[in-house]
Inverse folding.
């Protein structure tokens, strides 16, 4: 038993989001996505990580271990409707002059509205992007390749993750957008089908949802499964069955509904008496 | 009004904002930044989570700004003829922004992946328009637009030769070799003031492949100043009559300009 396990042996482990409430009902497929999204270390965008395990000081010859502390990055809620390509807001301090006290500074990503083209969906999408997103699309040879190759921890925002799910769903169906051009449909499918092997059908269905959205989704599905039957329907059938058992004639006959015998007709004084 | 305004704030020239020796870029630059900690955070013990960061660990120095750096060119394969760039199937190296917004998004090009290279290898056989050179269409467009004035002598006799046309082209900035010029079948002789300002067509062959009809007008010119004809201003805008009523070259089919 490792030393870490011994330390946590008698301790109370705080329940996580998947241990309580609706979170506990979520399928393993969503948990896998969530792990890929939130619990994987993203690529370093705003700092250059040091390589290797140890470093020797050039002057003193002292050996020290290398531990990379990622720079904390802020992702505001607006980022979820845009595509920042892994960038975020860096909040920190600057010393602009050696005579001055440090001053707080926000390093903001440069945003611009642009267009991306998804070949699988055959759609041009107007989105707010950063320069980094465009260069990533170029280096990955296309928007679809970029989304499908990049893990969720690097896409970060919900917009690209949702688009990734839609693209995967489209691929799973065999690109129905190109129904009228079978050659093109086959070509596009063959181009991107390699990415389908990483996911099962359920994983694709649960990909790219935020935790509250996933909870809502599963709640809706549970509600749809056990839809409450009105008690009047239950009692009516029970009554009819009882009457049938008793052998009453009217139960077997079909009762005419609507037509001339509605209650409104009976009240109408001008109606012709038949 | 201006006096009142001056009272409200100090005049611009006196304010130290513009005259200060300090640079003005203290304001936020909205670009991608790579930063570095000035003070290293505490080392964590083996197998334990990293230690908490102090305020001094949030003191950053800017290492580089990737938005300001020049991006390298990218390679694309054209899927149709692009003016001044190349034919279908040509692999061209262009600036990334131009490639993305003007070639890749409109569908005029694809990324130069190995699969695309194999796909667009033999495009000569396809029935897509090919031009002899990237600039060919540009030249054709320019030549079809101009009205070439061929300046001939008013005093001594001449017969119109290709070298006359070549010289006139050179005066307009077009270097046209003589073999590329197709003259009208009927001879044009002068000096004849009936020819003055009347249009006829010649055909120019670009790179021995594309053909274009060029409008020409004969203008008489004399070395004697008193004998010269008055200058016809903006003659290319005025409608003129044809020199030959049934000009054969006017009916010849030439390379289409879309």
């Amino acid at each position: 038993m490792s030393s870490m396990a011994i330390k946590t042996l008698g301790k109370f482990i705080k329940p996580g989001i998947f241990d309580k409430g609706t979170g506990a009902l979520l399928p393993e497929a969503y948990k896998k996505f969530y792990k890929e999204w939130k619990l994987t270390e993203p690529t370093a965008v705003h700092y250059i990580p040091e390589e290797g395990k140890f470093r020797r000081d050039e002057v003193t010859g002292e050996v020290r271990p290398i531990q990379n502390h990622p720079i904390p990055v802020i992702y505001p809620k607006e980022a979820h409707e845009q595509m920042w390509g892994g960038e975020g807001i860096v909040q920190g301090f600057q010393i602009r002059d050696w005579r001055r006290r440090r001053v707080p500074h926000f390093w903001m990503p440069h945003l611009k509205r642009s267009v991306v083209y998804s070949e699988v969906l055959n759609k041009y999408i107007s989105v707010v992007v950063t320069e980094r997103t465009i260069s990533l699309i170029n280096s990955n040879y296309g928007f679809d390749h970029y989304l499908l190759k990049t893990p969720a921890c690097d896409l970060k925002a919900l917009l690209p993750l949702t688009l990734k799910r839609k693209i995967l769903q489209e691929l799973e169906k065999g690109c129905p957008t190109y129904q009228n051009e079978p050659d093109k449909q086959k070509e596009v499918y063959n181009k991107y089908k390699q990415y389908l092997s990483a996911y099962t059908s359920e994983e694709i269905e649960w990909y790219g949802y935020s935790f509250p959205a996933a909870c809502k989704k599963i709640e809706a599905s549970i509600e749809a499964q056990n839809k409450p039957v009105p008690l009047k329907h239950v009692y009516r059938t029970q009554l009819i069955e009882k009457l049938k058992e008793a052998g009453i004639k009217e139960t077997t006959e079909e009762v005419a509904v609507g037509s001339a015998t509605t209650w409104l007709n009976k009240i109408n004084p001008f109606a012709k008496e038949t | 009004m201006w006096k009142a305004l001056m009272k409200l704030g100090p005049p611009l020239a006196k304010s130290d904002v513009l005259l200060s020796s300090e640079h003005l870029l203290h304001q936020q630059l909205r670009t991608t930044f790579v930063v570095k900690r000035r003070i290293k955070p505490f080392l964590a013990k083996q197998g334990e989570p990293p230690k908490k960061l102090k305020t001094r660990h949030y003191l950053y120095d800017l290492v580089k700004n990737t938005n300001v750096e020049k991006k390298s060119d990218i390679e694309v394969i054209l899927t149709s003829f692009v003016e001044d760039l190349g034919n279908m199937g040509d692999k061209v190296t262009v600036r990334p922004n131009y490639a993305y917004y003007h070639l890749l998004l409109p569908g005029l090009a694809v990324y130069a992946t190995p699969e695309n290279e194999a796909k667009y290898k033999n495009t000569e056989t396809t029935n897509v328009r090919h031009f002899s050179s990237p600039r060919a269409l540009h030249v054709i467009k320019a030549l079809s637009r101009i009205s070439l004035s061929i300046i001939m002598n008013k005093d001594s006799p001449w017969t119109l030769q290709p070298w006359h046309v070549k010289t006139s082209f050179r005066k307009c900035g077009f270097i046209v070799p003589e073999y590329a010029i197709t003259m009208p079948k009927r001879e044009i002789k002068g000096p004849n003031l009936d020819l003055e300002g009347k249009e006829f067509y010649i055909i120019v062959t670009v790179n021995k492949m594309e053909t274009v009809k060029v409008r020409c007008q004969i203008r008489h010119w004399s070395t004697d100043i008193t004998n010269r004809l008055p200058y016809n201003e903006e003659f290319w805008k005025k409608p003129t009559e044809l020199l030959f009523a049934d000009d054969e070259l006017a009916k010849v089919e030439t390379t289409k300009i879309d």
Summary: Chain A touches chain B at residues 3-4, 45-48, 64-65, 67, 69, 71-72, 87, 90-97, 102, 105-111, 115, 117, 124, 130-132, 134-135, 137-138, 141-142, 191 (CB under 8 Å).
